[in-house]
Amino acid sequence: MRALIIGLDAAEYDIIANGNYPHLKQMEYGRVEINVQPLFTPVVWASFITGASKEKHGVHGLHKWRNSFVDRLRNLSLNVTLPKRVSEQLLRGRSVLESVGVKTRFYDKSDIKIPTIFDSVDKHIAISVPSYNEDSVNLMLQKKETDALRTGNRKLMKETEELAWQIFREERERVLDLLERDWEIFMAHFY
Prior knowledge:
Layout: E1 3-8, H1 13-18, H2 41-50, H3 54-57, E2 64-65, H4 68-78, H5 84-99, E3 104-105, E4 124-127, H6 137-151, H7 154-178, E5 185-190
Parallel strand pairs: 1-5, 4-5
Antiparallel strand pairs: 2-3
Helix pairs in contact: 6-7
């Protein structure tokens, strides 16, 4: 038996279920309840591929700080309700930290503390799965998207949208090419 998992970021169940999307509603589709907070893509998908909470799998946010002390502080701030003013200061602090060279990176499979669905089979293909092996081009896209939304720059928003569609088309071709291979679990994630 083989399982093909197509992850569509932010494709809410109700939108798909109530819409006319026959290609997304083929043999099996449905809702997966993952009760995680904060509701960040890497945390959600790490919970999906492990079947466990963030406390067990170890993925706590959007990205991991390369400085372990800063990463521990960030994890603390994500898991405690902070006053709005403190949260705003932490967001500003991110820009300061990045400007002095403290960088972030995507979570990857080495950060996941427990086995994933990919560990349960011999033959698997995982394409750009957040928290497991996300493509670095997505980090560039996230930064562009954040800058576009923060500044309200319509030209940058349009460039970001065009880049997102280009990345989607390239990843779609990669998925279609790899479907011919021998696999038991195949998962591809699309923004």
